[in-house]
C-alpha cells in the first residue's frame, strides 16, 4: 500500500466491508452517503427557526433580483453575447453567498421559490442540532440524503463516521436527523433504512418487494439498508437465526465504539472506510451499541450527570 509509516494492520482486510460506493454485493450496507454540503452554512443553518426563516427569505429575494436583472440583460441576444454572470450579480456576502450551482441557475433563468416545508432539524455538529433549510435549490450537494430523510415524517437513524483522510481521529455518532458533511470530518453515513418513491404506474426498483410493500401516506416505501448478504453471514457465523438486521446495525455501532478496535486499527481507519469483524460475543456488542444509541439519540432528554461548578479564580 506504500505505507512507509503508520502502517495498516493486515487483519483489517479480512473484515467485512461496511459499505462500498461501487455497489459491492458483499457489504453490510447497500447504501452510504456523505452528509449535506450547503456551501452557505451561515445562511442555511441557525439555532433559531425564526432567524433562519428571515435569512432564507432575504437570500432568495437577493437571488431572484439578480436573476431577473441578468435575464433582462440577455433578452433578445444570442447566447454568445450574454454577459458573464460574475459581472452582473451582487457579490456582497451580507446579501447572499454565491456558489457554482447558484450562478449556473442564474444563467438558466431559474427562479427560486421559498418553501416552508424545507425547514427541518439537522445534526450540524456532534450533539449540536440546528434548524436547517433542506432544499436542493440552496444546498450545493445533497448526495443520497433525500433517500434517507425524504420528509420529516419518514423516520430514520444513521451512523455517521469520519471519512477517509480526516484530520481528526476516528469517531462515529448516530443521528436521527439530517447530518452535515462536517458533523464528522468529511463524514460518511450508513443508514438503518432508505426510502424509495416509485413513480406513478411504475414498479419499485427491487422486484422482490413489489407484492408485499405498501407506500406510506407520502408515497414512500421503506427499505432496510442492511443487506441480505450481511444478514445471512451473521446468522451463519453465529449459528443464530434470530439475529435481525437492526441487531446488526447496533452491533456495528458497538464495534465502532470499541477502544481496542479504534486503537489497533487507527492507521487503517485514517485511510479506508471501516471494516467490521466477527466479535466473539455478538449480543454483547449489539446490546452495547443499542444502549449507546439510546444515549446518543436522546442526549437532550437524559438527566444530566451531577456536576459542581467551581467559580474560583
Give a short summary of the structure:
This protein is α+β, with helices and mostly antiparallel strands. The chain is about 30% helix and about 15% strand.
Descriptive notes:
This protein is α+β, with helices and mostly antiparallel strands. It has helices spanning 41-44, 49-74, 100-107, 145-148, 228-238, 245-256, 259-264, 266-271, 282-297; strands at residues 16-17, 33-34, 45-46, 119-125, 128-133, 158-161, 172-175, 178-179, 188-191, 193-196, 221-224, 275-276. The strands form four sheets. Strands 2-9-6-7 form a four-stranded antiparallel β-sheet. Strands 3-5-4-8 form a four-stranded mixed β-sheet. Strand 4 (119-125) and strand 5 (128-133) form a beta hairpin. Helix 2 (49-74) packs across helix 3 (100-107) and helix 6 packs across helix 9 (282-297). The protein is globular and about 70 Å long. 31% of the residues are buried. Residues 207-212 have low confidence and may be disordered.
